[in-house]
């Protein structure tokens, strides 16, 4: 798996300095939680919050290139997975400060 994929970015968070690891905001819902560190690094954990690297999105019409076994396997998989530990959320603009977080039920 290459280092530019969205899945690998979910697994490899920036290295945390002592200031990075201080949590300043936390929100908890029934199924997932969010935390924001002092240096504005967002983390998520809980149910259905991590992209599944094995899930194929067929919105682009490529389902005709898959074997029957691949299509069945994809039907049994979910586009997102659960996470028992905090995962870094990549892709947010670094110049914007997160001021509030909330989680629904």
Q: Please describe the biggest sheet, giving its number of strands, its sense, and whether it closes into a barrel.
A: 4 strands, antiparallel
H/E topology pattern: HEEEHE
Q: What percent of residues adopt helix (DSSP H or I)?
A: 10-25%
What is the strand tally?
4
The secondary-structure class comes to: alpha+beta
Task: Describe the structure in brief.
With 105 residues, the protein is α+β, with helices and mostly antiparallel strands. The chain has helices at residues 6-11, 68-76, and strands spanning 23-28, 32-37, 42-51, 80-88.
Q: Can you tell me about this structure?
A:
The chain has 105 residues and is an alpha+beta fold. It has 2 helices and 4 strands, in the order αβββαβ. Strands 1-2-3-4 form a 4-stranded antiparallel β-sheet. A hairpin with a 4-residue loop joins strand 2 and strand 3. The longest helix has 9 residues. The radius of gyration is 17 Å and the shape is elongated. The N and C termini lie far apart (34 Å).
Would you spell out the secondary-structure blueprint of this structure?
Blueprint: H1 6-11, E1 23-28, E2 32-37, E3 42-51, H2 68-76, E4 80-88
Antiparallel strand pairs: 1-2, 2-3, 3-4
Keywords:
105 residues, single chain, 14% helix, 4 strands, four-stranded antiparallel β-sheet, alpha+beta, elongated, disordered N terminus
